[in-house]
Amino acid sequence: MKKSILVFAVLAFFSLEIQAQNVTRSDAAGGFGVRGGASFFNFGGSDASNNDYTNRTGFHAGVYSNLFLGERIALEPGVYYAVKGTQNDDLTNSRAVLNYVDVPLLLRFYIAKGINVFGGPQASFLTSSKFEGDLFGTTYSYDTESITKTDLGFVVGLGYNLPKGINLQGSYDYGTSPVFKNSDAEIFNRGFKVSLGYSF
């Protein structure tokens, strides 16, 4: 059984390497680009599991630059405006609306024609935060100062480049800074992003 697994792993590696050799910079999304899409965020962490938090749908939009370090590896800094937060399935449909400027620094590896995997650190800077709720047909909202101003984390994902500079990707944001400042609660920003981009 172990020999079969080893043979399969070796064959898979060489298959991936052969495909990767066919990748050129023209296959990849190089230069400057714009990207945006939907975000699905929630509060994660050990203390978040004790609450009725659910995914809250938001959006993100921004710019990026693909800086090639080789034929198949690129460094991609970016700046995005991102709406995050969470939703609670309670009587008032209460929710946290957290707006950030995300600054990721990603490393992309083009594993086959049009296909890439990526990951890297991300710093997120809070621009505004509020709690909302609905009661008797009216939405109530108030700003809060209890949210940590800077969220440090990581991003991982999978991308695909289409012809004419268009690219698609799915990614996961893993925040490591507690959402609430001056609190010992293990609650973090965690969520998925689905994006459509265009490289010039």
UniProtKB/TrEMBL annotation:
Protein name from the UniProt record: Outer membrane protein beta-barrel domain-containing protein
Signal found in the keyword field: yes
Domain of life of the source: Bacteria
Metal-binding found in the keyword field: no
Residue intervals of the Outer membrane protein beta-barrel domain: 7-200
Keywords on record: Signal
Endpoints of the signal sequence: 1-20
